[in-house]
Design goal:
The complex is a heterodimer of chains A (137) and B (459). Chain A has 137 residues and is of the alpha/beta class. Chain A has 6 helices and 5 strands. Helix content of chain A is 40%, strand content 23%. The two termini of chain B are 31 Å apart. The chains are: A alpha/beta (137), B alpha/beta (459). Chains A and B meet through strand 2 and helix 2 of A and strand 15 of B.
């Protein structure tokens, strides 16, 4: 079966590099082709990378609480760029402080994300979801 | 004596360099107007006659040439995303010594096709998609290019999965179609060497004949490469050294001409300070940029525009006076400064051309404020620790104050984000031999290196 390609990166003015490395390792081990655009990544960089590599999914990390501002409009830009149907996953500390996760999930669903993960999620959860969403199981 | 004849058929001048391989000396240099319209050999012979012939006539052991005559090597490149494969394709073409007329991104539209027809490039470079990445763009653009009304040599350097298929489509219309390795095999990995080689092969096998340069080959052995490729090759040799003979280390070459200012850097350009993150597409070790609006004669008016008020301010002239002088240069591209005042104008102009061209060539630092404090991101090459800057080009070499011009390449504390060399040594290519040494490298790299070290003058 053809290897599935995913774009991985930390969005916005966020410099958290350690989790990014861990996710890179975990998804690579799980058999995906990981295109890691690293930290301080803009929405445009995610989209350009996805177009050029014909990626199946964009995985956005945000650890510093500004995820909502940074992620808003990403789905619309994907649509505008011709990859409107691409899977969008997001996870990390998406909002400031400890908040109830259900409204956060609703918020990001409304922004067009397919899967939203709370703080402390282990990599095998999104890996299992991804296999399901891509029809690999 | 082992005389070697090295000729650069330039757009304006045919430049002849004769060297003795045995003693590693320059026997003579001369130039005459290029005669591409009639027979290139006329200009060459006129130049040759200016060098005193030894008894018994010249016995050349080798006769090599490079050329930027007949418009140089004109290329059009295309890729998928403007900042990614399209940019990688542009860099590959520049590195091969081409004049890049235009770069297209995404699917070629009908108007893009019309533009290509109007531009009549010598070679098309088709890129798009990383290996295993996007496939549609290469195939679609191959189909569009196959609809062009005439044949153009094409180099395909895109997604390897579909490159052969794209080549088959292109062959319906175009000849030759050469497949090279992808200019961007992985995201943000630049691999331009294979495409550069393919471009050079097409140049040798097809373009020379198409431009009528092969007339020169009845007398010369071979027109080996476009002139900018020869200069870049010489620069690479001079930077890296050969065998036990050390080079100068990382360096920058600024070629100030009448129509363009070319900048070549031979440097890794990694961040020189700790805590700086490199972002974006990495740049090639041997990087060349061409500024079409920064020439000292043909494009003097464009230079005046790019420089804005700086030229008038620098000289203390009125803007009207500056404009008149610029117009004079465009009208008389062969003009050599005739007065002290004109000479200082020439120097100021050259300095601005160098300043702007190097500004556009070097990398820059961007400060990003995060909740954890400031972060520093570098785009492009950090050339601040670069030890050597070398000046060449007709206008620069004829100027009485080449140092005044070259100092435009130096780091400016008022613009600390531009990573220009901070304390370089300056050299000039006094005898105008860099292109010739790039040719000589093909047969004797050691001699070419030693001669460059001997004949480049520190100022």
């Amino acid at each position: 079966m053809e290897q599935k390609t995913l774009i991985l990166g930390v969005i916005g003015a966020d410099v958290h590099a350690v989790g990014n490395r861990i996710l890179d390792y975990a998804f690579t081990q799980a058999g995906f082709k990981v295109i890691n655009i690293g930290v301080l990544a803009s929405q445009e960089e995610f989209i350009q990378a996805a177009i050029e590599t014909n990626a199946d999914v964009i995985l956005v990390s945000s650890l510093y609480g500004h995820g909502e501002i940074d992620c808003r409009g990403l789905r619309e830009k994907c649509q505008e760029s011709g990859i409107g149907n691409i899977l969008l996953y997001v996870g990390g500390n998406l909002v400031v402080g400890k908040q109830d996760f259900a409204p956060v999930e609703r918020l990001f669903k409304g922004m067009g994300f397919d899967r939203i993960y709370p703080p402390g999620t282990m990599p095998d959860v999104p890996i299992a979801d991804l296999r399901q969403d891509l029809g690999l199981v | 004596m082992q005389a070697v004849l090295l000729v650069d058929f330039g757009s304006t001048y045919t430049k002849v360099t004769i060297v003795d391989l045995e003693t590693e000396r320059i026997i003579g240099t001369a130039q005459a107007g290029t005669t591409i319209e009639t027979n290139m050999m006329e200009g060459l012979h006129q130049a040759l006659e200016k060098i005193p012939e030894p008894q018994g006539g010249w016995q050349f052991v080798r006769k090599l040439a490079c050329s930027s005559a007949a418009g140089g090597l004109k290329m059009v490149a295309s890729g998928l995303v403007k900042e990614l494969t399209a940019e990688a394709a542009r860099r590959a073409a520049l590195g091969a010594g081409a004049r890049v007329l235009q770069v297209f991104s995404y699917e070629l539209s009908a108007s893009d096709q019309e533009k290509i027809v109007a531009l009549k490039p010598d070679i098309l470079l088709l890129a798009g998609g990383t290996d295993g990445g996007n496939k549609e763009i290469l195939l679609k653009n191959a189909e569009h290019l196959a609809e062009l009304p005439f044949s153009i040599p094409v180099v395909v350097a895109g997604n390897k999965v579909v490159a052969p298929q794209a080549a088959e489509i292109l062959k319906i219309r175009h000849h030759p179609v050469v497949v090279a390795e992808n200019v961007m095999p992985e995201l943000n990995v630049l691999a331009v060497d294979s495409a550069r080689l393919a471009i050079r092969e097409v140049f040798l096998d097809n373009i020379i004949h198409a431009k009528g340069l092969d007339k020169a080959e009845e007398f010369m052995e071979r027109v080996l490469m476009p002139t900018p490729a020869a200069v870049l090759s010489a620069a690479e040799l001079l930077a890296q050294g050969f065998d036990d003979e050390a080079g100068l280390g990382e360096l920058l070459i600024v070629d100030v001409g009448g129509a363009t200012t070319d900048v070549h850097s031979l440097a890794q350009g990694e961040p020189s300070k700790p805590g700086v993150m490199l972002k974006g597409l990495p740049e090639p070790y041997a990087k060349r940029t061409v500024e079409g609006d920064l020439g000292m004669r043909y494009s003097a008016l464009a230079l005046g525009e790019a420089a804005g008020k700086r030229l008038a301010k620098h000289l203390g002239w009125t803007e009207e006076k500056v404009h008149r002088q610029l117009e004079l240069y465009v009208a008389e591209p062969w003009r050599v400064p005739e007065s002290e005042e004109e000479s200082s104008f020439d120097t100021a102009m050259g300095r601005l051309a160098v300043e702007l061209a190097v500004e556009r060539h070097v990398g820059r630092i961007e400060v990003v404020y995060t909740p954890f404090g400031a972060s520093y991101i570098q785009h492009g090459k950090d050339l601040t620790p670069l030890p050597a800057v070398i000046g060449t080009g007709g206008v620069l070499l004829r100027n009485s104050r080449p140092l005044g011009i070259l100092e435009g390449a130096v780091f400016n504390p008022a613009e600390p984000t531009l990573l220009k060399p901070q304390e370089p040594e300056f050299y000039v290519d006094k005898d105008y031999i860099l292109a010739a040494m790039g040719l000589l490298r093909e047969i004797s790299p050691l001699a070419a290196l030693r001669m460059m070290k001997k004949y480049l003058v520190k100022i």
